[in-house]
Amino acid sequence: MMSVDRRSGLSIQVDVAIAGGGAAGVAAAVTAARQGLRVAVVERYGFCGGGAVAGLSGTVCGLYEASDRADARPEQVVFGFADEFVRLLESRRGITPPVRYGKTYTRVHDPLVWREAADHLLREAGVQVFFHSTVTDVLLDGDRVGGLLAYTKQGKLAIRAAVTIDASGDADLLAMAGFPTFVGDDGKVQNPTMIFRLGGVDTARILSTYGTDTIMPEQVSDLLRRYNGNGYFLPRAKIWLFTTTRPGELLCNCTRIIGPDGRELNTLLAADFTDAETEGRRQVREYARFFRDHIAGCESSWVNDTGVQVGVRQTRQGRGVALLGNADVVAGTKFADGIARSPWPIELHTGAKPRVEWLLNDCYEVPFGCFVPERGAGLLFAGRCLSAQHEAVASARVTAQCFSYGHAIGHAAAMCVEARCEPRALKGVDVRSRLNADGARLGEAPMAASA
Asked: How open is the CA angle 431-91-112, to the nearest 5 degrees?
């Protein structure tokens, strides 16, 4: 018996091929296309957004500095494409003003408006988008990537490109090509979560009872601990509840998804991914029932929606020519070839209580080399699969930074095409200069050595 697919399929030639239409993929595609390049994006869903939309993460985190001052106002330090996308959401009434998140602020977006904003930008830039298409192979000549293959209902899609960008979130193309990758902390990853929206909520009562901080106070955690195993299954006691752009609605980040054996699940594994979906939906119902019974303002609430898929925080990462270290995040390290800023804390979502480590009144930078494969040519990567240590990626993976990575790698791809050079030949300081000319506001390169 042989494997057969007799459909005709299709083939195209572009300058830049991108796997994945999340924040990084959209930013990279729009940026490269604005430089006059032919760009194609392959996305497995029928919309863009990645974890922000399919995973329903629902927030644009990473825009603002953190501060210990109770009266501190939002201090934005990340601009460029991230800022442009937020302004577009604002113009469409698809994002809230900044809301308190511990020592910093975040913004809650409408996932439907996010999709439409991405559609608008991609269409305006002339990007060719292939929805409902799953990357299956890379086109490889020796150690040089020359594009990708994808499954579509029409047949196999071959996209040949001068530069290919892995914005899959899972470093899929690097793994397919056999380039160096790694998974979490010796294979251990942050657990996934099933985020959900709750309708019919008296949000004014929620805010007056528990305060405006979206990280729920100890009185809520105490209730969750008390009732876990006492009529409810509530494996996580520290939870996040966000009011949204819609009246009477909460975005709920509560679940701790573990396997039947109590193990943190790794969604790279087919069985784990399946377990995560079913366990996630089960926990959503448990938390929603608990909220109706015990949380002020939720007495008449109902589950309005869950993520299209479980929210994935960490899987496989590319091993780049540079590695963002845990110490770099904590120290607010700046790099001569830094192409993105982040003020976001380290958030380790593992165990019953997530750990948060804040960087106050400062930000760190992520060097260009974190997106250039250690081995191979013709390929860049962007998004949460950046080359970073376990705790560092627990900060660097959030939405505003993924926009910034895509912005940088879109420019880098264009520079490669213009100069007919390989990504490893680019200088990060030159990419930084190009970003500054495009509104990133990174400032002059510090004197510190490159990573």
From this structure: 90
Burial class for 338, CB neighbours closer than 10 Å (0-12, 13-18, 19+): buried
- Flag whether pLDDT at 264 surpasses 90: no
The pLDDT of 161-188, averaged and rounded, is: 95
Own/partner contacts of 257-260, CB < 8 Å, gap of 24 or more, are: 257/191, 257/192, 257/193, 257/194, 257/283, 257/310, 258/191
The span from the CA of 365 to the CA of 178, in Å, is 28
**Domains, in order of start, for the chain:** 10-61+111-186+315-342+365-437 (3.50.50.60), 196-306 (no CATH)
> Tokens 């210990």 appear where?
68
> To which residue do tokens 């007919």 refer?
420
Within the chain, what is the greatest distance between any pair of CA atoms?
A: 70
Confidence of residue 70 (pLDDT cuts 50, 70, 90): confident
CA distances from 362 to 10, 63, 67, 111, 249 (A): 49, 12, 9, 30, 33
Give whole-number Cα distances, 236 to 45, 130, 228, 253, in Å. 29, 38, 9, 10
- What are 348's two structure tokens? 């380790």
Distance of CA 305 to the CA centre of its chain: 20
Residues 6 or more apart whose CB falls under 8 angstroms from that of 382 comprise 24, 25, 27, 28, 165, 166, 167, 371, 402, 405, 406, 408, 409
Give the DSSP letter string of 191-246.
Answer: PPB--EEEES--HHHHHHHH-S-SB--HHHHHHHHHHBTTTB-----S-EEEE-SS
Short-list 29, 5, 98, 17, CA closest to 411: 29
In the 8-state DSSP scheme, what is residue 279? H
Can you tell me which residue has the tokens 């496989």?
316
> Distance between alpha carbon 75 and the CA centroid of its chain, in Å?
22
Half-sphere exposure of 162 (CA within 13 A, CB side): 20
pTM for the model: 0.96
Classify the C-alpha dihedral 8-137-148-385 as positive or negative: positive
The per-residue pLDDT for 448 is 55
Q: Where are the beta strands (DSSP E) in 22-103?
A: 39-42, 59-60, 99-101
Residue 399 token pair: 């939405």
Task: Tell me if residue 419 falls in helix, strand or coil.
Answer: helix
